[in-house]
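chain below, 251 aa
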Amino acid sequence: MEHSGSTRVQQFIGDPLTGAAPVERSKLEEIFRDIQADLRFDHQLNGCLNCGICTATCPSAHYYDYSPREIVQLLWTENLEGIYDAMQEKIWACAQCYTCAARCPFGNSPGGLVMLMRETAIKHGMESAKNVLRPFSRVMLKLISTGNQLSPDMISRDAFPDWGPNISKVDAPLATLRKAIPVPTLHTTKTAWEVNLKTSVELYTIWEETGVLESLKAVDPNLFDVIRDIMDEKREEYSDWQEEQEEEDDD
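prediction:
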């Protein structure tokens, strides 16, 4: 086994005893290229003094097997196996508070780098991404199909057991309480606010053009199919509305 003394980049891939890599090198390189190709990468990784300030101030590091310094070191040395391994579990422990970015003397953003790794994990349909996103399928459906992230009727004891005794408050008559809110669009319990058809179609088009839906397809094909059917209907409805408006203008 050879180790180069002239580069910070890890050269050896595979088990030091058998020489076998758990994942093909070409796949590891592809994953790293996708992370590195993001425009944010060069702004969030400037080097590493290995001082540990980011880990010392990281809330997640106190409770999970997670270290922002490790993430920076893996990317800085292009440790392809280590990067792949961290994407299986560790990157999902980050709380995205960005305390690490505020404290890093080198101006790194470990939290930002974690976000790039998460997006890449979703793009490649990694099992870790599927497991993390699966509980949020209902929220994702609500967000993409209605433009709302959360609605009152989604808050239940089963969905939020970690809320403790406060969750009992949702037993109140939500429909009645919502009517007490002055803004008319907040009177529904099915959505947090009303999103008109034009805006809904525009949002969907943005998610479609930016690759969000393709990423969703990689981690949850069933949810992707449901959302596509819903939005196809909305597009048809919007198209019909436009035609009606044109006919009225002609008259």
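The chain has a mean pLDDT of 83. The chain has two domains: 25-124, 133-250.
thats it, cya
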